[in-house]
Each structure stands twice: as C-alpha cells, then as structure tokens.
Amino acid sequence: MVEKKTVIVTGGNGFIGTNMVRLLINSKAYRVVNLDALTYAANALSLADLEGSQDYVFVKGNITDSELVSSLFDQYQPAGIFHLAAESHVDRSIVSPEDFMQTNVVGTYRLLEAARAYYVTLAEEKKQEFRFLHVSTDEVFGSLGADGYFTEETPYAPNSPYAASKAASDHFVRAYHHTYGLPTIITNCSNNYGPYQFPEKMIPLMILNALSGKPLPVYGDGSNVRDWIYVEDHCKAVKLAFEKGTVGGEYAIGANNEQKNVNLVNKICSILDDIAPPIEVPQLRERGLKSYTELIQFVTDRPGHDRRYAIDSARITRELGWQAEVGFEAGLRQTVDWYLSNPKWVDQASGGSYSEWIEKNYAWRADAQRESK
Ligand code: NAD
Ligand code: DAU
C-alpha cells in the first residue's frame, strides 16, 4: 500500500477548499491539515463530518500569521501545500479592498516565505516531491471581447481590486520559483459552481433569492459572459497539476462552457420551476407567480464589470490528460438540488455578518437594496 502524503490546504472551509479537501481525503492518498481563519465565507458545517478522522486536522488561523504557518510546516513536514485561502468576492473588493491586499497579497507572501524556509531544510528526496500549488483565477487576464480565449500566454491585465490582488499573488509565486527555486505551480481557473458555494456568488444567490421570492438582480444588461466549470472538475485538475504538473508552470483550467448571465439566470429559474414550482412553495403561493423568471430585475451594473471570460485549457489536456467530466445541465441541476437539500447549511451561511454586509455595503446597487427590503 502506498504511504499517504501529508499536505496543507489553506482555505479548506471555503467553497472550493471544501471540495478540494474531500477529493484529497477520498482519494485515500492524502492526510490534510486545513488552515482556515473561518471568515464570513467559511462554513464550519461544510467539513464537520471529517472531525475526528485520522486523515484530517483543522487549524483555525490566519495565513498572514508567519509564526503559525512556520510551526505547521515544522510540525507536519508536509509534501506540499494547496493554497486556496483568499478573499474571493469581486463586489466586496470594490467596496473594501484592504482585506484583499492583506489576505491575497501579504498572506500569499507569508506562506511563500514559510515554505521557502522549510524547503531548504528538506533532504533531496523530499525536495523532489515538494510542491507549492497556488490556486488562482482567470480574472488576472482582464476582459475578452467577442472572440478569443485566455491561455497561459495571455498577458496579465487585472481590472478589479480582487483580480489585482490575485495577479500580485501569482507574480510573487512565480518570482519565488524563478529566484529561489521553490517548486511552484499556478492554476488559473474560470467561474466555479456546485455545492458549498457561499450565497453571495451569482448561482447560489439566484437559487436562494428565487426560493424566498426576492428579486433576482442581474447586473447591467445581463449580457456579460462567464465560463462555468463544476467545482469537482476544477479540484481534479488542481490535484493532477500538484501530482504531475511541470514545476514552475501555469495551467489555465476551464470547461468550455460560456453562458450569458441572463441566460444562466433563466436556466436556474427553469430548473426551479420544474422541481419546486412557485405554486408549491408555501410562502410564494399567494404571490401568484407562474415562473421564477418573473423575479428577474436588471439592476445597476458592477463598476468595471469585465465583459467576457473564456478559457482555452488545451495545455492541461495535452500535458496531463485532464478533461472536464460534468456537463453543465447535469451539474446545474445537481447544484440546485444540493441547495434545496441542505437548509441547515444555507441558514448558517445566509445569516449573521453576510446579511448585515449586504444591507450596509451595496452602495452602487441602491435599486436592488431598496427592493430587497
Ligand atoms: P471562498 O471565499 O468560498 O473561501 C475562502 C476561504 O478562505 C474561506 O474558508 C475563508 O475562511 C478562508 N480565508 C480567507 N482569508 C483567510 C486568511 N487570511 N487566512 C486563512 N483563511 C482565510 O473562496 P473560493 O471561491 O472557494 O475560492 C478559493 C480559491 O480559488 C481562491 O484563491 C480564489 O481566488 C480561487 N478561485 C475561485 C474561483 C471561483 O469561481 N470561486 C475560480 C477560480 C479561482
Ligand atoms: O472567473 C473566476 C472568478 O469567478 C473567481 O476568481 C471569483 O472568486 C469568483 O467570485 C467569480 O467571480 P465573478 O465576479 O465572475 O462571480 P460572481 O458570482 O460574483 O458573478 C458572476 C457574474 O454574474 C458576473 O458577471 C456578475 C454577475 N452577477 C453577480 C451577482 C452576485 C449578477 O448579475 N448579479 C449578482 O447578484
């Protein structure tokens, strides 16, 4: 039997982190040390069933805490790190960029420093296996026109404070490979969807607003395009890049699935009309809605809203044999089902600081704010 590798995952209680930790542990090849600060975006319920497992350790802490991070490298002697912890929501980065600077830029830098100090102490064989896998985004490349795709060769042109902070962290990761020989790999993925996504993001927001009869706020004219990938497909690509990717390399990851925002919202409504028609939802019955599409409202656009994202993932397919497995129609239906089947998780995620933040901070969306009251 092959010995399990111990790895650190940062941000394991977030959306992609939860799916990543589960994939690693279910593969039976890894023990995971999950370092997460449990910010508003985390949900303690997401990995509650792993507590007590021999293959899982949870550490509550901040990636900017150098002492803590170094102590984890010393204590657990990991074969690598999957770095996912980040402030991840573009709208929030527009309202308050400071946290993005701290976590995404300073936090990544502190992890790199701790990894570098640990790496030089390793025996040659351990050095050969060590990887610093940095999970990043296609938003670092800016916005596309009607044609073309992002690839690993696309020049960086981040537009939002979120994208700028991720671009800065990518550059630090690249520099630590180039200057210090740290074995890094960067993945730049498109929009993820699936279970455990915090309900400020578009897909869960639309599902949950619809079910409670709130407006479905589509920014601008709704014709912005995003390229959607099922979260498990993304996590499989990241795992493969960690295990087989070229050291110092980058991989663009996407499922070749472009959707106009308004079309996607219509698809979500149509799935909901099918499995939870408004007439059968007690709190909606009296409203006389025939379809959830009646809740769609076009609202003030996000400032600097990128027009179109689309990924050409030929490199990871060619070099590592990765391909997305989940079709969009099936994945979207599975996602809607998951939110309907997990009311406890949804309650925990939707209350508290999140609803307060929405009330206070959606300055440019005054129209949506008024209507949700
Ligand atoms: P998320 O917001 O759902 O989760 C982030 C997690 O990081 C949370 O558990 C949070 O508590 C933790 N965290 C935040 N700041 C921290 C800190 N200072 N120290 C320790 N933990 C901290 O994010 P996500 O959508 O799961 O994204 C994960 C990663 O993937 C991010 O790096 C993001 O940039 C990248 N990414 C996301 C997408 C997407 O569509 N969601 C696409 C491509 C890349
Ligand atoms: O492309 C990868 C990125 O995808 C990740 O790096 C980010 O972490 C992740 O949040 C996501 O960014 P987006 O800004 O694309 O995701 P969001 O879910 O916020 O919005 C998706 C699209 O939907 C975008 O064009 C804005 C629009 N939108 C969003 C919300 C929340 C709306 O029209 N209405 C909304 O209420």
Structure, described:
With 373 residues, the chain is of the alpha/beta class. It has a domain of 249 residues: 3-Layer(aba) Sandwich (Rossmann fold). Helices cover 43% and strands 16% of the residues. It has 14 helices and twelve strands. A seven-stranded parallel β-sheet has the order 3-2-1-4-5-6-10, sandwiched between helices. The protein has a three-stranded mixed β-sheet with strand order 7-9-11. Helix 6 links the parallel strand 5 and strand 6. Helix 1 packs across helix 8. It is globular and about 70 Å long. The model has no long low-confidence stretch (mean pLDDT 95). The chain binds nicotinamide-adenine-dinucleotide and 2'deoxy-thymidine-5'-diphospho-alpha-D-glucose. 2'deoxy-thymidine-5'-diphospho-alpha-D-glucose binds next to helix 7 and strand 8.
Notable features of this structure?
7-stranded parallel sheet; binds 2'deoxy-thymidine-5'-diphospho-alpha-D-glucose; Rossmann fold; single chain; 373 residues; 3-stranded mixed sheet; binds nicotinamide-adenine-dinucleotide; globular
